[in-house]
Hints:
Blueprint (H helix, E strand, L loop, with lengths): L2 H22 L2 H27 L8 E4 L4 E2 L5 E8 L12 E4 L4 E2 L5 E8 L1
Parallel strand pairs: 1-4, 2-5, 3-6
Helix pairs in contact: 1-2
Amino acid sequence: MNTRRTVLTVTSLAVAGLGVAFFLLRRDEANQAATLVSALMAVAALGVAVWAGLPVTRPRGLRVTGTGEARAGAGGTAVSGYAGPAAGGTGQDAGTVEVENTGPADATGGGDATSGVRLT
């Protein structure tokens, strides 16, 4: 069950429960209970509205630009750009890795070269 459906189900159950409670209480007790519930829900709604208005923090990305030339000798590794983990972790919440204008990477000496991004 997704979050939206869960919220709808819990809200419906709360409304049904309050309706039954108000029906079973005497008129003045139901009036007092309704006032209390209304006050609590107003504070909760204000809190949710403030929370919804707060800025969302996004994972920060990594930007590499204008790197120079890289050469790899026999058995070596050269990276002109970025070599490492994806910024911000893995999965849906991962940040971005952005690489522009990388220099040439030369592996003619028998090594391994990358111009751009090598994620580990």
